[in-house]
């Protein structure tokens, strides 16, 4: 099963932080979920849609996190990250999506293609689409009650409202465009950032995720096949509030081209998700660190 600029360019560091923070890697099966994605700092594609430069970012990120959403077992991982941004549109390489530790439930992660649809000074509305490789379930995973999911194309409609340059509210409607997994999710969040000194940015955020019954069932339900493999009781979760989340992070810019990021996040599973027989621990902490190199083509 597979489940990321301070100084002269604050927005570029924000982009780097967002890229690395949405690249939670994967020998671990991460509990990082749409809430933690939605509450990340806004990325530069909303902040600077008029810029004609082609911006490249390449790097590596490592994480320590639960093996799957609800696990009490910790995993460790490292993965590459890459992103290209031009005039507000961005493409994240497929390796970023493959590196995600929980591709099945992490459907709002802003990999693939993203871009703006409408923007004013305070309000930004955009889209996103990415391939989701689903979830391959091993015998060990099946014994835990986890279920497989087909690969599909995930679509996102994203809204951001900037109260000021450092405080932003976000909401993202996430759904399966091909109907292979089904379900819908609505993560919403509030993020704040502050420059501590030239080259050092602090950010913090809080958020929550609502999920449809099908989305809940994909990640926390127990059907007849899962019951037979795991011995767990049948469980059909209803729609509702799935989790609340928060994080704190630092993004540093030691040179013009290099940037590093560190972020500690905590997800608390609630309601139908927390009541699932597969959930062993409702508190899901995760630590991410990463480093990247950025450059621009004019």
| Count of alpha and pi helical runs | 8
Mean pLDDT: 80
How would you describe the shape?
globular
Total domains, how many? 1
User: Count the strands?
Assistant: 12
Name the helicity range: 10-25%
CATH architecture: Beta Barrel
Any overview of this molecule?
The chain is of the alpha+beta class and 298 residues long. The protein has one domain (7-297): Outer membrane phospholipase (ompla), Chain C (Beta Barrel), CATH 2.40.230. The chain is built from eight helices and twelve strands. It has helices spanning 10-21, 34-38, 44-47, 94-99, 139-143, 213-220, 224-230, 271-274, and strands at residues 54-66, 74-86, 89-92, 112-119, 123-132, 152-164, 167-176, 184-197, 200-211, 240-252, 258-269, 283-297. Strands 1-2-3-4-5-6-7-8-9-10-11-12 form a twelve-stranded antiparallel barrel. The chain starts with 9 loop residues before the first helix and ends with a strand.
Protein topology:
Blueprint: H1 10-21, H2 34-38, H3 44-47, E1 54-66, E2 74-86, E3 89-92, H4 94-99, E4 112-119, E5 123-132, H5 139-143, E6 152-164, E7 167-176, E8 184-197, E9 200-211, H6 213-220, H7 224-230, E10 240-252, E11 258-269, H8 271-274, E12 283-297
Antiparallel strand pairs: 1-2, 1-12, 2-3, 3-4, 4-5, 5-6, 6-7, 7-8, 8-9, 9-10, 10-11, 11-12
What's this model, at a glance?
This protein has eight helices and twelve strands. By secondary structure, the protein is an alpha+beta fold. The chain has one domain: Outer membrane phospholipase (ompla), Chain C.
Keywords:
298 residues; alpha+beta; 17% helix
